[in-house]
Amino acid sequence: xxxxxxxLAARLAKATADRSAIPPxxxxxxxxxxxxxxxxxxxxxxxxxxxxxxxxxxTSRAKQAQVGLDEPVRGFLAxxxxxxxxxxxxxxxxxxxxxxxxxxxxxxxDLSGPGVTAADALAATAGIAAGIEILDSRFLNYRFTMPDVxxxxxSAGRYLVGAPVPPxxxxxxxxxxxxxxxxxxxxxxxxxxxxGHPAAAVAWLTRSLAASxxxxxxxxxxxSGGLTAAVPLSxxxxxxxxxxxxxxxxxxxx
Length: 254
What we know:
Oligomer: single chain
Largest sheet: 8 strands, mixed
Distance between the termini: 41 Å
Number of strands: 12
Strand content: 25-35%
Number of helices: 6
Structural class: alpha+beta
Shape: globular
Helix content: 10-25%
Radius of gyration: 17 Å
Protein backbone atom coordinates (compact mmCIF):
# COMPACT_ATOMS: atom_id res chain seq x y z
CA UNK A 1 0.00 0.00 0.00
CA UNK A 2 2.94 2.37 0.62
CA UNK A 3 3.69 2.31 -3.10
CA UNK A 4 0.06 3.19 -3.82
CA UNK A 5 0.23 6.10 -1.33
CA UNK A 6 3.28 7.59 -3.06
CA UNK A 7 1.73 7.15 -6.50
CA LEU A 8 -1.56 8.73 -5.45
CA ALA A 9 0.24 11.68 -3.88
CA ALA A 10 2.29 12.13 -7.06
CA ARG A 11 -0.88 12.11 -9.15
CA LEU A 12 -2.38 14.91 -7.06
CA ALA A 13 0.87 16.89 -7.11
CA LYS A 14 0.97 16.66 -10.90
CA ALA A 15 -2.64 17.85 -11.17
CA THR A 16 -1.74 20.87 -9.03
CA ALA A 17 1.38 21.65 -11.05
CA ASP A 18 -0.42 21.19 -14.37
CA ARG A 19 -3.48 23.12 -13.15
CA SER A 20 -5.59 20.37 -14.60
CA ALA A 21 -8.34 18.41 -12.83
CA ILE A 22 -8.24 14.62 -12.73
CA PRO A 23 -10.80 11.89 -12.01
CA PRO A 24 -11.23 10.95 -8.34
CA UNK A 25 -8.60 8.56 -7.00
CA UNK A 26 -11.35 6.24 -5.84
CA UNK A 27 -12.53 5.67 -9.42
CA UNK A 28 -9.59 3.33 -9.88
CA UNK A 29 -9.19 2.38 -6.23
CA UNK A 30 -12.63 1.72 -4.74
CA UNK A 31 -11.05 0.43 -1.54
CA UNK A 32 -9.57 3.84 -0.71
CA UNK A 33 -10.48 4.73 2.87
CA UNK A 34 -10.01 7.73 5.15
CA UNK A 35 -6.86 6.32 6.76
CA UNK A 36 -5.21 5.97 3.36
CA UNK A 37 -6.45 9.44 2.44
CA UNK A 38 -4.66 10.95 5.43
CA UNK A 39 -1.47 9.08 4.47
CA UNK A 40 -1.63 10.63 0.99
CA UNK A 41 -2.24 14.04 2.57
CA UNK A 42 0.79 13.55 4.82
CA UNK A 43 3.03 13.09 1.78
CA UNK A 44 1.84 16.41 0.38
CA UNK A 45 2.36 18.07 3.74
CA UNK A 46 6.00 16.97 3.84
CA UNK A 47 6.56 18.69 0.49
CA UNK A 48 4.58 21.85 1.24
CA UNK A 49 7.14 23.77 3.29
CA UNK A 50 6.37 25.65 6.53
CA UNK A 51 3.03 24.95 8.16
CA UNK A 52 0.77 27.91 9.02
CA UNK A 53 -1.95 25.86 10.66
CA UNK A 54 -4.93 23.68 9.91
CA UNK A 55 -8.34 23.67 8.25
CA UNK A 56 -11.56 21.77 8.73
CA UNK A 57 -14.03 20.48 6.18
CA UNK A 58 -17.54 19.05 6.33
CA THR A 59 -18.29 20.82 9.61
CA SER A 60 -21.96 21.34 8.77
CA ARG A 61 -24.19 18.74 10.45
CA ALA A 62 -26.49 18.82 7.42
CA LYS A 63 -23.57 18.21 5.06
CA GLN A 64 -22.31 15.35 7.23
CA ALA A 65 -25.72 13.69 7.05
CA GLN A 66 -25.80 14.24 3.29
CA VAL A 67 -22.47 12.47 2.72
CA GLY A 68 -22.89 9.85 5.43
CA LEU A 69 -20.30 11.11 7.92
CA ASP A 70 -20.53 11.71 11.65
CA GLU A 71 -17.45 13.93 11.98
CA PRO A 72 -15.51 16.53 9.99
CA VAL A 73 -12.30 16.05 8.01
CA ARG A 74 -9.07 17.99 8.40
CA GLY A 75 -6.31 19.38 6.23
CA PHE A 76 -3.21 21.52 6.62
CA LEU A 77 -2.47 25.13 5.67
CA ALA A 78 0.84 25.81 3.96
CA UNK A 79 2.36 29.20 4.70
CA UNK A 80 3.04 29.60 0.98
CA UNK A 81 -0.70 29.58 0.21
CA UNK A 82 -1.61 32.57 2.40
CA UNK A 83 -2.92 35.69 0.66
CA UNK A 84 -2.06 39.18 1.89
CA UNK A 85 -4.87 41.63 2.61
CA UNK A 86 -5.38 43.70 -0.54
CA UNK A 87 -3.47 41.30 -2.78
CA UNK A 88 -5.42 39.76 -5.68
CA UNK A 89 -6.20 36.10 -6.09
CA UNK A 90 -4.55 34.98 -9.32
CA UNK A 91 -7.18 32.57 -10.53
CA UNK A 92 -4.91 31.31 -13.32
CA UNK A 93 -2.72 29.66 -10.69
CA UNK A 94 -5.64 27.44 -9.66
CA UNK A 95 -7.87 24.88 -11.35
CA UNK A 96 -11.46 25.64 -10.29
CA UNK A 97 -11.39 28.11 -7.37
CA UNK A 98 -14.35 28.68 -5.08
CA UNK A 99 -14.64 30.99 -2.04
CA UNK A 100 -16.31 30.46 1.31
CA UNK A 101 -16.36 32.50 4.55
CA UNK A 102 -14.60 31.17 7.65
CA UNK A 103 -14.12 32.05 11.30
CA UNK A 104 -10.37 31.84 11.87
CA UNK A 105 -8.76 31.05 15.23
CA UNK A 106 -5.26 32.28 16.10
CA UNK A 107 -3.79 30.06 18.80
CA UNK A 108 -2.28 31.82 21.79
CA UNK A 109 -0.72 28.70 23.27
CA ASP A 110 -0.13 25.06 22.45
CA LEU A 111 -3.15 22.80 22.67
CA SER A 112 -3.12 19.02 22.48
CA GLY A 113 -4.68 15.89 23.88
CA PRO A 114 -7.54 13.47 23.30
CA GLY A 115 -9.90 15.15 25.77
CA VAL A 116 -9.83 18.75 24.54
CA THR A 117 -13.20 20.55 24.71
CA ALA A 118 -14.59 23.64 23.01
CA ALA A 119 -13.98 25.58 26.25
CA ASP A 120 -10.35 24.45 26.20
CA ALA A 121 -10.03 25.60 22.59
CA LEU A 122 -11.41 29.04 23.40
CA ALA A 123 -9.14 29.39 26.41
CA ALA A 124 -6.11 28.66 24.19
CA THR A 125 -7.17 31.18 21.54
CA ALA A 126 -5.45 34.56 21.31
CA GLY A 127 -7.67 36.00 18.59
CA ILE A 128 -10.41 35.30 16.09
CA ALA A 129 -10.81 36.79 12.64
CA ALA A 130 -12.97 36.82 9.56
CA GLY A 131 -11.45 34.87 6.72
CA ILE A 132 -12.03 33.59 3.21
CA GLU A 133 -10.89 30.16 2.12
CA ILE A 134 -10.30 29.55 -1.57
CA LEU A 135 -11.09 25.93 -2.30
CA ASP A 136 -9.53 24.31 -5.35
CA SER A 137 -10.34 20.65 -5.79
CA ARG A 138 -7.96 18.68 -7.97
CA PHE A 139 -10.89 16.48 -9.02
CA LEU A 140 -13.09 17.08 -12.04
CA ASN A 141 -16.24 19.07 -11.24
CA TYR A 142 -15.65 18.73 -7.48
CA ARG A 143 -16.73 15.09 -7.66
CA PHE A 144 -15.13 12.98 -4.94
CA THR A 145 -15.64 10.60 -2.04
CA MET A 146 -14.56 11.58 1.47
CA PRO A 147 -11.31 9.57 1.24
CA ASP A 148 -10.60 11.41 -2.02
CA VAL A 149 -11.08 14.85 -0.50
CA UNK A 150 -8.96 13.94 2.53
CA UNK A 151 -6.16 12.85 0.19
CA UNK A 152 -6.58 16.15 -1.67
CA UNK A 153 -5.99 18.08 1.56
CA UNK A 154 -9.69 18.91 1.81
CA SER A 155 -9.56 20.90 -1.45
CA ALA A 156 -7.11 23.45 -0.03
CA GLY A 157 -6.15 26.27 -2.38
CA ARG A 158 -5.49 29.68 -0.85
CA TYR A 159 -6.70 31.52 2.26
CA LEU A 160 -7.09 35.10 3.44
CA VAL A 161 -7.25 36.09 7.11
CA GLY A 162 -8.40 39.46 8.45
CA ALA A 163 -7.15 41.27 11.54
CA PRO A 164 -7.84 39.18 14.66
CA VAL A 165 -9.77 40.48 17.65
CA PRO A 166 -9.85 39.06 21.22
CA PRO A 167 -12.49 36.34 21.62
CA UNK A 168 -13.70 37.64 24.99
CA UNK A 169 -17.42 38.30 25.16
CA UNK A 170 -18.21 37.10 21.63
CA UNK A 171 -20.70 34.24 21.28
CA UNK A 172 -19.39 32.65 18.11
CA UNK A 173 -22.53 30.56 17.71
CA UNK A 174 -24.60 33.65 17.11
CA UNK A 175 -22.40 35.90 14.98
CA UNK A 176 -24.00 36.65 11.63
CA UNK A 177 -22.12 35.83 8.43
CA UNK A 178 -22.71 37.42 5.02
CA UNK A 179 -20.99 36.39 1.79
CA UNK A 180 -21.13 38.85 -1.11
CA UNK A 181 -20.08 38.05 -4.67
CA UNK A 182 -19.74 40.93 -7.10
CA UNK A 183 -21.91 43.16 -4.94
CA UNK A 184 -24.72 40.64 -4.47
CA UNK A 185 -25.43 38.80 -1.22
CA UNK A 186 -25.10 35.14 -2.15
CA UNK A 187 -25.38 33.50 1.27
CA UNK A 188 -25.92 34.18 4.96
CA UNK A 189 -25.28 32.02 8.01
CA UNK A 190 -24.40 32.05 11.69
CA UNK A 191 -21.29 30.79 13.42
CA UNK A 192 -23.23 27.78 14.66
CA UNK A 193 -23.09 26.39 11.10
CA UNK A 194 -19.72 24.91 12.07
CA UNK A 195 -20.43 21.94 14.39
CA GLY A 196 -22.85 24.03 16.43
CA HIS A 197 -19.95 26.21 17.65
CA PRO A 198 -16.70 26.99 15.79
CA ALA A 199 -14.69 26.25 18.93
CA ALA A 200 -16.15 22.74 18.90
CA ALA A 201 -14.60 22.34 15.46
CA VAL A 202 -11.21 23.42 16.81
CA ALA A 203 -11.59 20.98 19.70
CA TRP A 204 -12.42 18.15 17.29
CA LEU A 205 -9.35 19.04 15.23
CA THR A 206 -7.15 18.91 18.32
CA ARG A 207 -8.51 15.51 19.34
CA SER A 208 -8.04 14.22 15.80
CA LEU A 209 -4.42 15.40 15.74
CA ALA A 210 -3.82 13.80 19.13
CA ALA A 211 -4.55 10.41 17.59
CA SER A 212 -1.41 10.82 15.48
CA UNK A 213 0.66 12.35 18.26
CA UNK A 214 0.27 15.96 17.13
CA UNK A 215 -1.43 19.11 18.38
CA UNK A 216 -1.93 22.80 17.75
CA UNK A 217 0.96 25.20 18.33
CA UNK A 218 0.96 28.78 19.55
CA UNK A 219 0.78 31.14 16.59
CA UNK A 220 -0.89 28.64 14.28
CA UNK A 221 -4.20 29.48 12.66
CA UNK A 222 -7.24 27.26 12.27
CA UNK A 223 -9.89 27.72 9.61
CA SER A 224 -12.84 26.33 11.53
CA GLY A 225 -15.01 25.32 8.58
CA GLY A 226 -16.93 26.88 5.72
CA LEU A 227 -20.08 28.62 6.94
CA THR A 228 -21.95 28.88 3.63
CA ALA A 229 -21.93 27.23 0.25
CA ALA A 230 -18.82 28.18 -1.74
CA VAL A 231 -19.08 30.46 -4.80
CA PRO A 232 -17.08 29.82 -8.01
CA LEU A 233 -14.56 32.52 -8.90
CA SER A 234 -13.44 34.03 -12.21
CA UNK A 235 -11.05 36.87 -13.12
CA UNK A 236 -12.62 40.23 -12.23
CA UNK A 237 -14.75 38.86 -9.41
CA UNK A 238 -14.82 40.43 -5.95
CA UNK A 239 -15.81 38.50 -2.84
CA UNK A 240 -16.49 39.99 0.60
CA UNK A 241 -17.00 38.02 3.80
CA UNK A 242 -18.49 39.96 6.71
CA UNK A 243 -18.82 38.45 10.18
CA UNK A 244 -20.42 40.29 13.09
CA UNK A 245 -17.91 41.52 15.68
CA UNK A 246 -15.00 40.22 13.56
CA UNK A 247 -15.17 42.63 10.62
CA UNK A 248 -14.96 42.07 6.86
CA UNK A 249 -12.37 40.78 4.42
CA UNK A 250 -12.45 41.49 0.69
CA UNK A 251 -10.77 39.55 -2.09
CA UNK A 252 -10.45 40.64 -5.72
CA UNK A 253 -9.67 38.10 -8.45
CA UNK A 254 -7.34 38.66 -11.37
